[in-house]
């Protein structure tokens, strides 16, 4: 067992936790929603200072894991964005390209799978429903409230299972 595998996990969401999605919300406000454009704009997300500081602080004692509702097809852009921000390396868990379940289901499933073999110190996420379900399941949660909330994104996450 490596030293890092003994450390507890700190699990971080990306959108509106570490990455500011405000500039791409417009793609969700039109009908039909333009998901391709929404995700294509993700590499231009500004970092959210509060989330970035928390992930760096957590990395002192924990192994960092990223848990996002972004589809797998966004992996390269996501990895490039994380590296460009100088964030700690960590495994990135993404939803399958055809998975349209709400994030609260997909993320809780992954959290439970991780918890089978590792201690999860904290989950940091902006999605209220993800946070509520994770807390009910016994996980320690920090709700990221430092990004401007988006009603369109919240509705899309819950009804369309896209991010």
Automatic annotation (TrEMBL):
Cited InterPro entries: HAD-like_sf, HAD_PNKP, HAD_sf
Lineage start: Bacteria, Bacillati, Actinomycetota, Actinomycetes, Kitasatosporales
Segments forming domain Polynucleotide kinase PNKP phosphatase: 11-143
Domain of life: Bacteria
UniProt-recorded name of the protein: Polynucleotide kinase PNKP phosphatase domain-containing protein
Protein's organism: Streptomyces viridosporus (strain ATCC 14672 / DSM 40746 / JCM 4963 / KCTC 9882 / NRRL B-12104 / FH 1290)
């Amino acid at each position: 067992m490596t030293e890092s595998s003994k450390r507890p996990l700190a699990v971080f969401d990306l959108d509106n936790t570490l990455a500011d999605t405000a500039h791409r919300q417009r793609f969700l406000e039109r009908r039909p929603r333009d998901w391709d454009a929404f995700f294509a704009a993700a590499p231009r997300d500004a970092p959210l200072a509060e989330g970035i500081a928390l992930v760096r602080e957590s990395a002192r004692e924990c192994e960092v894991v990223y848990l996002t509702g972004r589809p797998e097809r966004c992996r390269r852009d996501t990895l490039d964005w994380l590296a460009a921000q100088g964030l700690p390396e960590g495994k990135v868990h993404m939803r399958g390209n055809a998975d349209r379940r709400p994030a609260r289901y997909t993320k809780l499933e992954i959290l439970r799978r991780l918890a089978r073999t590792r201690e999860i110190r904290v989950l940091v996420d902006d999605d209220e429903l993800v946070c509520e379900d994770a807390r009910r399941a016994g996980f320690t949660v920090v709700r990221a409230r430092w990004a401007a909330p988006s009603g369109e994104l919240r509705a899309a996450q819950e009804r369309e299972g896209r991010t």
